[in-house]
Specification:
heterodimer; A: 474 residues; alpha/beta; Aconitase, domain 3; 2 domains; five-stranded parallel beta sheet; 19 strands; 16% strand; B: 212 residues; Aconitase, domain 4; seven-stranded mixed beta sheet; 32% helix; binds iron/sulfur cluster; EC 4.2.1.33 (chain A); leucine biosynthesis (chain A); branched-chain amino acid biosynthesis (chain A); 3-isopropylmalate dehydratase large subunit (chain A)
Chain lengths: 474, 212
């Protein structure tokens, strides 16, 4: 019999009950909550007169709606100008209070984007099942955890039962052989993967990322990769546990200590696919082929090398694809065959659960240090992923580097990643963004998003257009 | 949850692939703390020419006349015909809520994004996967036949065309059972409370650090 995949191991360890119809009841170790997808779930509990099954497994923080300017944040919840946003954050506070759920509120240094906060606190641990009413929950798979997004009905289900009704997914291995070249980051890697397999390439699969290039990544890098597994259609992305994982987790507030730490580490070391494990699909790519990536269109799979150009629809045989390319070019205000480096930028956004961790900010700061943001830009902003990332960056003096270069240094939250607060693109504006989605209107009505790595966004901020950041590194 | 057994209705064709959840319901409408009222903002950016705001009176907004749902022939449509990878993007359940609130009961497509597909079932909305060829043919039929209707029969697991031809579809047994009977999934899971508790006890022995 073939060995087990990492996914098999995680699934088996959490199986509460196998139903006859192929579905199963799966136990959830960590449930993260934020203000957007939880209010209706709490409401459901109240209506049915149900209580949370196990309080300690839940952790909440507001992130999507919080303002990110220092001035607004100083006012606390009163600083949220939009009354509807304010109600949502207040509702989360009230619900957490009513049901007794731990929440890092606005004003708490531990507040931040839920997918930055979980790992940073050690609330995400190897071997866990982690869910959240947010598709980028796949991020937490970087720890050798089974992590995926759920809808609001499932948020309610997890609150009430600590379980989910799930069906086992198929398994996919994405192996990246070799090492990334200098100036090529985890973000480029994952954009490249999506470009190769498409935004639906991972649909129905739990994806394990493996290979030398993945092993060589920091936890931040692995989180970036798993974060965007969902952009390839895969609900869950994961990476096997190794020393990098264990060293990252050690000493975090929610991490086990003393004998429990040793016992945990011993178990965590088994969290990898067996050598003879079989996957339903295997994709092998070569790290050496990967160059800094920039999306040109309105789907993350519409991506090219920074030295490349937008496609020419006339060369596409498939009619539906041709229409999609034409529509994307029109929306993005690009010509067929237009060079990526000739796109003039209006704004730059460095942040989001994909790229707002300390390492991301260090990479961006290294590029802008001693330089000035292009005068043609309307705005360039850096939004740390959590209050603790912000404090760390300030302790390292990164905030000063950004401010001196002309970038805004903001308070933690989702910010311009999805423009639910005041940080948005205007219609027609081009933005180099380190976030994960370039859908139409994602960063503001009519806004044009180009997904890139933090280093590439930083270089673009200085140049006012895309440049190959590798040329700046010598 | 409202039950779904059999439904007949006008079909509206949305002829584009990869329709994402931002397109189905833009984020500014996610700020609501309610489950209802999203229908007027379904496909907001495609449907109206201006930028929509929450709590706004949509009846006076400029309509995009080109958009399929604004064409009189598709008024009252309750079956949505769509293309590949429908519902990709975020996990927002507001997407099925908006479709449902608008009046859609079923979505037909060659493929769906996972989370969206899942969310539909929890809200009495039936997502149906049909072969790409069948979908193509339905697009042609809908476009050439004003008032084109389909019947979705979950009991028999078929989509019935006006000429009586039936297209069979697959649906997970458990989901079908819940939908047919309008069952509450939480209540069903809580019937296994003992299994959950005994799992916790066993797991606590193996991984005590998860239970502090
Ligand atoms: S940063 Fe963006 S993608 Fe991440 S949770 Fe917030 S809104 Fe979602």
């Amino acid at each position: 019999m073939a060995g087990k995949t990492l996914y098999d191991k995680l699934w088996d360890a959490h199986l509460v009950r196998q139903n006859d119809d192929g579905s199963a009841l799966i136990y959830i170790d960590r449930h993260l909550l934020h203000e957007v997808t939880s209010p209706q779930a709490f409401e459901g509990l109240r209506i049915a007169d149900r209580q949370p099954w196990r309080l300690a497994n839940n952790l909440a923080t507001p992130d999507h709606n919080v303002p990110t300017t220092v001035k607004e944040r100083a006012l606390g919840i009163e600083g949220i100008a939009d009354p509807v946003s304010k109600t949502q954050v207040q509702t989360l506070d009230a619900n957490c209070e009513e049901f007794g759920i731990l929440e890092f509120k606005m004003g708490d240094e531990r507040q931040g984007i839920v997918h930055v906060v979980g790992p940073e606190q050690g609330a995400t641990l190897p071997g866990m099942t982690v869910v959240c009413g947010d598709s980028h929950t796949s991020t937490h798979g970087a720890f050798g955890a089974l992590a995926h997004g759920i809808g609001t009905s499932e948020v309610e289900h997890v609150l009430a039962t600590q379980c989910l009704v799930a069906k086992k997914m198929k398994s996919m291995l994405i192996r990246i052989d070799g090492t990334l070249s200098a100036g090529v980051t985890a973000k480029d890697l994952v954009l490249y993967v999506i470009g190769q397999i498409g935004t639906a390439g991972g649909t129905g699969y739990a994806v394990e990322f493996a290979g030398e290039a993945i092993r060589g990544l920091s936890m931040e890098g692995r989180m970036t990769i798993c974060n965007m597994a969902i952009e390839a259609g895969a609900r869950a992305g994961m990476v096997a546990v190794d020393e990098t994982t264990i060293n990252y987790v050690k000493g975090r507030p929610f991490a086990p200590t003393a004998e429990q730490w040793d016992a945990a580490v011993a178990e965590w070391r088994t969290l990898h696919s067996d050598a003879d494990a079989e996957f339903d699909r295997v994709v092998v790519l070569n790290a050496a082929d990967i160059e800094p990536q920039v999306t040109w269109g309105t789907s993350p799979e519409m991506v090219v090398d920074v030295n490349g150009k937008a496609p020419n629809p006339a060369q596409e045989q498939d009619g539906i694809k041709r229409m999609a390319i034409e529509r994307a070019l029109r929306y993005m205000g690009l010509e067929a065959d237009q060079r990526i480096q000739d796109i003039t930028l209006d704004r730059v956004f460095i942040g989001s659960c994909t790229n707002s961790r300390i390492e991301d900010l260090r990479e961006a700061a290294a590029v802008v240090k001693g330089k000035k943001v292009a005068a043609s830009l309307k705005q360039a902003m850096v939004v740390p992923g959590s209050g603790l990332v912000k404090a760390q960056a300030e302790a390292e003096g990164l905030d000063k580097i950004f401010v001196e270069a002309g970038l805004e240094w903001r308070e933690p939250g989702c910010s311009m990643c999805l423009a639910m607060n005041a940080d948005k693109l205007g219609a027609g504006e081009h933005c180099a963004s380190t976030s994960n989605r370039n859908f139409e209107g994602r960063q503001g009505f009519g806004g044009r998003t180009h997904l890139v790595s933090p280093a590439m966004a930083a270089a673009a901020a200085i140049a006012g257009h895309f440049v190959d950041v590798r040329e700046w590194m010598n | 949850m409202k039950a779904f057994t059999i439904h007949s209705g006008i079909v509206a064709p949305l002829d584009r692939a990869n329709v994402d959840t931002d397109m189905i319901i833009p984020k500014q409408f996610l700020k609501s703390i309610k489950r209802t009222g999203f229908g007027k903002n379904l496909f907001d950016e495609l449907r109206y020419l201006d930028e929509g705001q929450p709590d706004q009176d949509c009846s006076t907004r400029p309509l995009n006349k080109e958009f399929v749902l604004n064409q009189p022939r598709y008024a009252g449509a309750s079956v949505l015909l769509a293309r590949e990878n429908f519902g990709c993007g975020s996990s927002r359940e507001h997407a099925p809520w908006a479709l449902d609130d608008y009046g859609f009961r079923a979505v037909l497509a060659p493929s769906f994004a996972d989370i969206f597909f899942n969310n539909c079932f929890k809200n009495g909305l039936l997502p149906i996967v049909l072969a790409a060829d069948d979908i193509d043919e339905l697009f042609r039929a809908v476009e050439s036949t004003p008032g084109y209707q389909l019947t979705v029969d979950l009991e028999k697991k078929v989509v019935r065309k006006p000429d009586g031809v039936e297209l069979a579809f697959d649906v997970d047994q458990f989901r079908r059972h819940c939908l047919l009977n309008g069952l509450d999934e939480i209540g069903l899971s809580l019937q296994h409370a003992e299994a959950i508790t005994s799992y916790e006890e066993k797991r606590k022995q193996q991984a005590p650090w998860l239970f502090v």
